[in-house]
Amino acid sequence: MSARNISNSCSQKRVTVPQILARKGGDPIVCLTAYTAPMAKLIDQFADLILVGDSVGMVVHGLESTLDVSLDMMALHGRAVRRGATRALVVVDMPFGTYEEGPEIAYRNAVRLIKETGCEAVKLEGGAYIAETIQFLTDRGIPVVAHIGLMPQAKNIKGGYKVVGRRQQEWRDIENDAQKVAEAGAFALVLEGVAEPLAEKITSLIDIPTIGIGASNKCDGQILVTDDMLGMFQKTPTFVKRFADLETEITAGLQAYAEEVKARTFPAQEHTYAMLETKPELVVSNAT
Ligand code: KIV
């Protein structure tokens, strides 16, 4: 292998957990969600970390919330994404009901996800109360991304999807959550729907990177649901910027297809298979 090849293959190496940790306070960490191999392949060129989020339930499967997402679904999508991404660190979400009961069950389910998908790490929602589980997993070789603030899996107890930290009296508990999950060994912390000053304070308080979603640019990195930022949906939350308008593009493409099929202008000649040319048969005259 030539020196050039060696340096090429090194630059293709997958981002590691220690590399993400080392980005604390440094260059912002670029993260996005993916649920399929082709999308993971595209995102892989730009992202440090790809999350196979349980948002797959709503975005891909048309579920009302993430609560109905199963371990089987996460395993299937995790496997697909990991196949598509060769460079980014791939993290898979643990779905509702697969880790809250206790460290042993969480470990068993996390092992299943890691073994079946090949993903490097799992993410789970929860603050101080889940710290023991995070410690159990990390002690046994499973890297964990924690997730606090607005926790979609807690939507029923909270009465919806509520931004946190807009009142100072809420801060203490959330700061405590952040410190506990960081001390337990999480290597990154997703802050979802967190008011800017609190996100900034938490980011300075803990020594692992914070990944914001609706939590201002004061975090160490950012994540968005890819389908949201590419404009697949008309209605998006305040914190989402539509970096493309795929819904309009796709609708235009579908409409043009339907019109051309109805007008019989598609398929045209260039999309059509003709007969293979055959040599004319030799005619032998039997005439005497
Ligand atoms: O499920 C998901 O997509 C997430 C991120 C948006 C943080 O948890």
Structure write-up:
This protein has 288 residues and is of the alpha/beta class. The protein contains 12 helices and 8 strands. The protein has helices at residues 3-11, 17-21, 37-43, 56-59, 71-84, 103-117, 131-139, 155-158, 171-183, 196-205, 226-229, 246-262; strands at 29-33, 49-52, 89-93, 121-125, 144-149, 188-192, 210-213, 221-224. The protein has an 8-stranded parallel β-barrel with strand order 1-2-3-4-5-6-7-8, surrounded by 5 helices. The longest helix has 17 residues, at 246-262. Residues 1-10 have low confidence and may be disordered. Bound molecules: 3-methyl-2-oxobutanoic acid. The site of 3-methyl-2-oxobutanoic acid has 11 residues, from strand 6.
Spatial strand sequence of the major β-sheet: 1-2-3-4-5-6-7-8
- Assign the CATH architecture of the largest domain: Alpha-Beta Barrel
CATH superfamily of the largest domain: Phosphoenolpyruvate-binding domains
Per DSSP E runs of 2 or more residues, the count of β-strands stands at 8
In the predicted model, the low-confidence regions spanning at least 5 consecutive residues are 1-10
Residue share in β-strands: 5-15%
